[in-house]
Amino acid sequence: MRFPSIPSLLAGAVLAYTSLVAAADKTAQGAIQIQDAQLSLMSADGSSQHSEKLEYPTPSLTTWALEPDSILRLTFGIIDSSNGKAFAPQHAHVRFTDAETSAMTLLPVQIKGKGKARFDLADGRVCQTLSQKSSNLPASIRSSSGTHTLTLLLGHPSSISPLSYTFGTLSLPASRLLPVPKHRHDLSTKKEGEPAFVVQPEIQWTFNTGEKVVGKGVSALGTGIVVGLPVAVWLMTGAQVLPSLKTQSATLSTLLFLLSLVGLEALILKYWINWRLYQFLPPFLGLGLISAFIGKVALGQVQKRRIAAQVSSVGPVVVDTSTNAKGGKVGIVKTK
Q1: What pLDDT, on the 0 to 100 scale, is given for residue 6?
Q2: Cα–Cα distance measured from residue 49 to residue 42, given in angstroms and rounded to the nearest whole number
Q3: What is d(CA 162, CA 155) in angstroms, rounded to the nearest whole number?
Q4: How far apart are CA 283 and CA 275, in angstroms?
Q5: Total domain count for the chain?
Q6: How far is CA 33 from CA 38, 109, 217, in A?
Q7: Virtual CA dihedral for 301, 304, 309, 311, nearest 10 degrees?
Q8: C-alpha dist (Å) from residue 323 to 38, 318, 326, 327, 328
Q9: Please, what sign has the CA dihedral across residues 157, 163, 166, 167?
Q10: Dihedral of the CA atoms 126, 131, 135, 137 (nearest 10)?
Q11: What digits encode the pLDDT tens for the residues 96-135?
Q12: Residues in the chain with pLDDT < 70?
């Protein structure tokens, strides 16, 4: 007979100890449990139509029919199984699962003090004074087959085990149901011999009416004001400026400056038509520097010609040099 070795015995002992510690820790952590659970069907005036006490984890065998003037109410207490004290989970919802499509909808449960909870479901047309926190039927529940499985879900972000309890079946009245939405790839049923695809009716588009045409008289009056007013202002100012206006022949620097400005405008036009920014910037910056230099020269020449014209109109001048208080010399231009 062969006996197990000492390392094997130690490994088995460690494994058994770990399993016992894990089981004891799990028991110490506890789980969410419910007690005194009751499911009731109430009318809008507060009177109870049907009531049933639930025993977790046994579900109700009754199919609860929610009529247009009734409220489905679920009340229960929540405790921690490790100490039996009241417990308030952070997540509390009732899940509605469609019996045909398996579509699911979650509605919140109202948690009160000392672990008390209540969930009310109304169809949206009953008096809200009976249940201010009642959940109305959302479109996801109404757009269904009408039969739903009700599951209570309680959870908390800690080591305590959550709870999932399927407690009953709900039936909705046909008058409160909406058409079940079709999925993208659902094909409509066709009769024997019918084609799968048929010609659809033509879509009739409705366009806005055309803009109202302005009368010719109003249009002519507006054109006269827009065009005639600037021309009248130009004629009035020109009658005063033209008699005293003295023109001079343009110098070469002035012509080059105007030509550089035309070149800049041509580059901007080219960029607007088909150039990229990296194609536009180098020639534009280069021509801009040239234009600035030529413009400075041209404006200097124009200034000299204007001063010379003023001197010739006044006559010979004499520059009188005097000394100021700081010892500097100051020139004063005087006419003879």
Answers
A1: 55
A2: 5
A3: 4
A4: 12
A5: 2
A6: 14, 15, 87
A7: -170
A8: 115, 16, 8, 6, 5
A9: negative
A10: -10
A11: 999 888 889 999 999 987 889 999 888 654 434 444 445 5
A12: 1-29, 123-136, 182-190, 313-336
Using the 8-state DSSP alphabet, how is residue 115 labeled? G
Q: Which amino acid is at 204?
A: Q
Please report the pLDDT score of residue 22 as a whole number: 44
- DSSP, res 133: T
Question: What is the model's pLDDT at position 240?
Answer: 82
Helix and strand counts by DSSP (H, E) for the chain: 5, 13
What is the identity of the amino acid at 294?
I
The enclosing domain of 81 has a CATH number of 2.70.50
pLDDT at 128: 42
* Sequence-separated contacts (24+) of 55-62 with Cβ below 8 Å: 56/165, 57/165, 59/165, 59/166, 59/167, 59/168, 60/167, 60/168, 60/169, 62/168, 62/169
Q: Which residues pair with 320 in a beta bridge?
A: 332
In a domain, 77, yes or no: yes
Q: Which residues, including other chains, have CB under 8 Å from residue 116's CB and lie 6 or more apart? A: 75, 77, 78, 86
- Give the Cα separation of 16 and 253 in Å (integer): 105
SS3 208: coil
Paired residues of 153 in beta bridges: 93, 164
Instruction: Note whether 39 and 122 are same-domain residues.
Output: yes
Instruction: Quote the domain boundaries for residue 294.
Output: 250-322+329-336
Cis ω for the linkage preceding 57 (within 30 of 0): yes
Other C-beta atoms closer than 10 Å to the C-beta of 19 total 10
84: left (phi over 0), alpha (psi -120 to 50) or beta: left
**Helix intervals (H) in the chain:** 6-29, 139-142, 216-241, 252-273, 277-314
Residue with tokens 């520059």: 319
Query: What pTM does this model have?
Result: 0.47
144 and 277 co-located in one domain: no
